[in-house]
Amino acid sequence: MKNLEHIGIAVKDFAAANTLFTKLLNAEPYKIEEVASEGVNTSFFRMGEAKIELLEGLTPDSAITKFLEKKGEGIHHLAFEVEDIYAEMERLRAEGFTLLNEQPKRGADNKLVCFVHPKTANGVLVELCQEIK
Ligand SMILES: CC[C@@H](C(=O)O)C(=O)SCCNC(=O)CCNC(=O)[C@H](O)C(C)(C)COP(=O)(O)OP(=O)(O)OC[C@H]1O[C@@H](n2cnc3c(N)ncnc32)[C@H](O)[C@@H]1OP(=O)(O)O
Ligand SMILES: [Co+2]
């Protein structure tokens, strides 16, 4: 694990949340990107080395839509940057964590991603991400 890459925050009203975070951080999002495979719209704000990722659900079966229905708005996941996502997935499997993907998949912001089930990580949904070079 190299560093905290981003904190994912689930929001109900994407436009309003972007306005609020722009005021809060005194910075505009550097990227807004829809990821159809996850059924989400995302926006990214730089925060030093790390980023804030705002997520809105676009489909009823999206993880974000379900999370908002059950838990409401707030922190949804922590994402850690890794050098070699395949090696890190293998290491975490061997340590007994449950991975939610057999293989890494394409995420937002030019990353390969994989998720660790929150039930095996003290209630925290963890995302591994590796930059696609
Ligand atoms: C845009 C791409 C990417 C990026 O590049 O950054 C993203 O960030 S995408 C983010 C959205 N995608 C995902 O979250 C994918 C991974 N998530 C999942 O596969 C599922 O959400 C899940 C974690 C397996 C849960 O799905 P499911 O079992 O269908 O939902 P339930 O509502 O039944 O939840 C079961 C259980 O887990 C708890 N839960 C759910 N989400 C979270 C969460 N984010 N953090 C902590 N805990 C979570 C939920 O409360 C349930 O607990 P119990 O009620 O105690 O059983
Ligand atoms: Co994320």
UniProtKB/TrEMBL annotation:
Its EC number is 5.1.99.1. Residues 3-131 form the VOC domain. Keywords: Isomerase, Metal-binding. One of its GO terms (molecular function) is metal ion binding. The keyword Metal-binding applies. GO terms for biological process: L-methylmalonyl-CoA metabolic process. It is an enzyme of class 5 (isomerase). InterPro entries: Glyas_Bleomycin-R_OHBP_Dase, MeMalonyl-CoA_epimerase, MMCE/EMCE_epimerase, VOC_core. Pfam families: Glyoxalase_4 (PF13669). Belongs to the methylmalonyl-CoA epimerase family. This is Methylmalonyl-CoA epimerase.
